């Protein structure tokens, strides 16, 4: 539902690149398209642009609504808009769908011009390094030499960090929210279980389910249900659902009995209707691969030595998937390099999803930081 201070009606834009893109995997994409949205006005000296990097299942639709669907609110609508923490009266905000996505940018569901068929499993692996290359090309296309800020939560925060390393001259500020400098073994394990749910679905057909007229809905549904559990905290699940029964009494069978089961099934079904399974596989692997310290013998301080931006790092107390400890590692490495860093550990009961929630304290922190950028 559109709120009173929303941006209002927005429309996606599309840009085509015919300059080959050399990917980290060694594969070259001869051409590709990116879909993005913009909010606010670019100022005369083009210095007020803010790039929002999306999380695992995000896309370019960050704020506002589409004219043909008043319920299509952007995924960070509580953060971005006129008078909101990222104020579109001051900033020109860009939301982008990552390469490999399934909401318009070139990805597995796109048609491969060489074959006339969808890429499917032939779409190459993409990483945060590759996304940063596409971001800077988009910035060049729009005429932005340097972003006022690059902001992201979760995978988006990691991509923002990657931009600070690969294109340090292209951003004055980097905001890393609910993220990590690399996944823990436990996080990689969760991602692998999610992928196995998809890969072993009989309707997956090696990723070429498009030509078989099938869809690995069951696998993607299970993957999302698993992921959703890890995005919440035990406290938030207990508060919201407890052991409440769906129909008031136990049925002693394997149908849905508890409200938490009903919620997870709903979230899984909803996601399976909106997302592509091959893209989900790609995005989780991009998370796994992210490790900027890998080329520096695991020394994050050395890896971040090339960064130039000022940083805002935020974590949430109940986020057990990307815990505050992981954020403090980033902060230490940045401070070791004598970079300007603002850090806050925000009390929250919502788990990893806290970065998407309406939280006055959290939003005030972001607002204060962004206000300082704009002055």
UniProtKB/TrEMBL annotation:
Taxonomic lineage of the native organism: Bacteria, Pseudomonadati, Pseudomonadota, Betaproteobacteria, Nitrosomonadales
Role noted for this protein: Transfers a succinyl group from succinyl-CoA to L-homoserine, forming succinyl-L-homoserine.
Annotated active site: 154, 319, 352
Gene3D superfamilies per the UniProt record, alphabetical: 1.10.1740.110, alpha/beta hydrolase
Domain AB hydrolase-1: 48-355
Entry-linked PANTHER family: HOMOSERINE O-ACETYLTRANSFERASE
Family: Belongs to the AB hydrolase superfamily. MetX family.
EC number from the UniProt entry: 2.3.1.46
Organism the protein comes from: Nitrosomonas stercoris
Entries under InterPro entries matching the protein: AB_hydrolase_1 (IPR000073), AB_hydrolase_fold (IPR029058), HAT_MetX-like (IPR008220)
Signal peptide positions (record): none
Pathway noted in the entry: Amino-acid biosynthesis; L-methionine biosynthesis via de novo pathway; O-succinyl-L-homoserine from L-homoserine: step 1/1
Domain of life: Bacteria
HAMAP family in the cross-refs: MetX_acyltransf
UniProt keywords, alphabetically: Acyltransferase, Amino-acid biosynthesis, Cytoplasm, Methionine biosynthesis, Transferase
Gene that produces this protein: metXS
Subunit structure: Homodimer.
Site (Important for acyl-CoA specificity) location in chain: 321
Protein name as annotated: Homoserine O-succinyltransferase
Compartments, as annotated in UniProt: Cytoplasm
Gene Ontology terms describing biological process: homoserine metabolic process; methionine biosynthetic process
């Amino acid at each position: 539902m559109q709120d009173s201070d929303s941006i209002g009606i927005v429309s996606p834009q599309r840009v085509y690149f015919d300059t080959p893109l050399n990917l980290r995997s060694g594969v070259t994409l001869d051409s590709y398209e990116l879909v993005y949205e913009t909010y606010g006005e670019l100022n005369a000296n083009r210095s007020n642009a803010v790039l929002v990097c999306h999380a695992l299942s995000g896309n370019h639709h960050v704020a506002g609504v589409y004219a043909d669907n008043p319920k299509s609110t952007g995924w960070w609508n509580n953060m971005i808009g006129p008078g909101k923490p990222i104020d579109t009266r001051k900033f020109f905000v860009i939301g982008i769908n990552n390469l490999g996505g399934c909401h318009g940018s070139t990805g597995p569901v796109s048609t491969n011009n060489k074959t006339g068929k969808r890429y499917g499993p032939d779409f190459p692996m993409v990483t945060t390094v590759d996304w940063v290359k596409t971001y800077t090309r988009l910035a060049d296309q729009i005429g932005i030499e340097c972003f006022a800020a690059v902001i992201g939560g979760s995978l988006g925060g990691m991509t923002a960090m990657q931009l600070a390393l690969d294109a340090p001259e292209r951003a004055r500020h980097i905001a890393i929210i609910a993220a990590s400098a690399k996944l823990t073994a436990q996080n990689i394990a969760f991602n692998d279980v999610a992928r196995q749910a998809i890969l072993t679905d009989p309707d997956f057909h090696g990723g070429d389910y498009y030509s078989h007229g099938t869809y690995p809905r069951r696998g993607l549904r299970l993957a999302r249900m698993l992921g959703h559990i890890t995005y919440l905290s035990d406290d938030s699940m207990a508060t919201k659902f407890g052991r409440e029964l769906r129909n008031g009494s136990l049925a002693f069978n394997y149908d849905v009995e508890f409200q938490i089961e009903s919620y997870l099934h709903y979230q899984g079904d909803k996601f399976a209707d909106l997302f592509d399974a091959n893209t989900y596989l790609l995005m989780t692997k991009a998370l796994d691969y992210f490790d900027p310290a890998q080329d520096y013998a695991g020394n994050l301080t050395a890896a971040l030595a090339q960064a130039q931006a000022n940083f805002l790092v935020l974590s949430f107390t109940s986020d057990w998937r990307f815990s505050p400890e992981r954020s403090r590692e980033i902060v230490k490495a940045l401070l070791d390099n004598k970079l300007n860093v603002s850090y806050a550990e925000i009390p929250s009961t919502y788990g990893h999803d806290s970065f998407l929630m309406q939280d006055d304290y959290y939003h005030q922190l972001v607002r204060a930081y962004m206000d300082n950028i704009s002055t």
